[in-house]
Each structure stands twice: as structure tokens, then as C-alpha cells.
Amino acid sequence: MKKLLVIVLAVFFANAALFAEGWQVNAGIHLSKLTVSDEDNDYREQESNTPISIAIAKEFKKTESGDWLLELSLMTGEKYEEKYLGYSISAAFEIKMKTAFFASLYYQFNTSIAALKPYAGLGLGAASLKVSDVASASGSPFVNGSASGTNFAYQLAIGANYFFNENIAAGLGYGYRYYGSIEIDWDSNDKQIIDVDSRGLFAKVTYRF
What we know:
mainly beta
């Protein structure tokens, strides 16, 4: 993930050096659902903990119908959790998307309302996942299964920004993010591969320089 970040940053800033204007920064909050599925098509979903994102973007090509933007973003804070409480045993199964990094390409459309900018885009990157299943029998905790790793990830997003002036905008959108697969090693010596993704609405505030 570090090598990918270095390469993307080098390309990003090399391109940005050709232009003096068009930089943007944004921050967002996401009302998404983290979903989990396995090879047996067992599918579960749960409201996530309103993850947040921060990003820096550069307008690098203008056309009659709109603008192309290259964006680097970082997201953190998504979690899926199940808990079980019994007479003598309790358990907590948890999947965390610790951090995700994306390099995304967006097209921002011009409209008859100059301040309104709909957009659509695709991003590629990497996501860090951690899985743990911790149980407690008669008050003695033990790890039933665990896994962690960094995976290839991608995202799709559509939305619209409204610019209140030349610099400040607010917007709403809908996004889908695939965080990859992870293999869990269970105490029973069984292995399970699960896929993790997320989807939902988001709101962002943008400042354009």
C-alpha cells in the first residue's frame, strides 16, 4: 500500500505542477452499510459507524460540457459487528475497515445552473481490513478466529455539488466501495474467505482554491 501511495502521489503532483489553479480539498461523512458475504453466499449487512473521508483534488482538463478531476482520498471508520450472549459463553465477531486509500478520476458536468455541478467517478486503491472473533467461556476469553491484511479496493460514486461562491460548495452523493476478500483462520482449523464491501449516501463540503 505504501508503494502504491508513493507512485500515485508522484504522478499526481507531477501533473499538478503543470497547472496553477483548480485545487480542491473536501471532507465527507458517509451513511453507509458494510456488507459481508462468503463462498456459501451467506450475506449479511449492518449500518456502519458513519465513516469519514478527506481528499485533495485537482482539475486538470476543462471541456465545453464539464471538467475532469483527479482526486486522492483517505477513508476510515467502517465496522461490522455481531455479538452473542449466552448462559456461560459470550462472543463478539468484528470486521473493521481500518483505512482505505483511493486515487479517483471524476467528471464534473456543467449545467444550465452554473453553481450546480453533478459528477460521476471511479477510484482504485487499497484497503486495510481486520477480522476478529473473540469468545469468553466461564469468564475466560479466547480468540476463536482472526485475520488481517491489505487488499486491492475500488469505488464508484455519483453526486452533485452546489457552489455557494467561487470557493465553497456542499454536496450529496451515493457511493459503492469494494474492500476485497480476506481469509479467516478459525480455531477449528477451518478457513473461510469473506468479501467486504460498502454502499450508501454521503455528504461533503468542498473548498476550491
